[in-house]
Amino acid sequence: MDYRNFNEDFSLKGKTAIVTGAASGIGFEIARMYARKGANVVSFDLSEPAELPAYMEQCGAGYMAYAGNITETEAIEACVAQTVERFGSLDILVNCAGIGVVEGVLEHDEALWDKTLGINLTGTVRFMKAAAKVMKENGGGKIINMGSQAGVVALEGHLTYGCAKAAVIYATKQFAMEMAQYNINVNAISPTIILTPMGEENWNNERGEEFKKKIPAHRFGYPEEVAACAVFLASDAASLINGANLVIDGGFTIC
Q: Which of 57, 83, 160, 183 has its CA 20 to 30 A from that of 205?
């Protein structure tokens, strides 16, 4: 392969991608943007995204929905197997499924800890493992994990969420180191607060205005901005980027 001869339009034509957490928010926008870039898309979430089937048809993209729980290994392996059976390959995995609840260190709840790490960390690692096995046999692929600025710096009330995301960033590096020999690139994206419907609900208020003052760009992000980064990392143009954590935070973590 001539790594200097890549598509400058960041096309994903002919690629097949699984996007977890595709029913809403960042995962939803990544699925849509991947379709516009020509990829076959498999959405993995607890339920099928209501708007995606018609949108995928409009884009002319191959599409499959898998309703499953990311904490169940059987569901992960079945989704990967059905993806390969349907489209013949698995080229891209984007781990977006996750939950986050604000809690102080003295209010730490063990049940919430177990649930958050089960979804945000364990599910992500298991999906990486299942996808990497297929990609190794197929000659390569791209894995993109959703980290967070909370996994890079400490944020008030983010004990459980921050620990999970910091571990995701580490797991990304570990997989990247061991899978590079098989032409598998593994990277993470760590956004600031993103104005998904949930982000709007939680941060479109006085607290959000105060937080924005700490960001050099003085604003939060949009799902489309994260999706654009996910397109780049999934494209052939990013073939030398491996084990990176692309922080999208308007400069928050440089302060």
A: 160
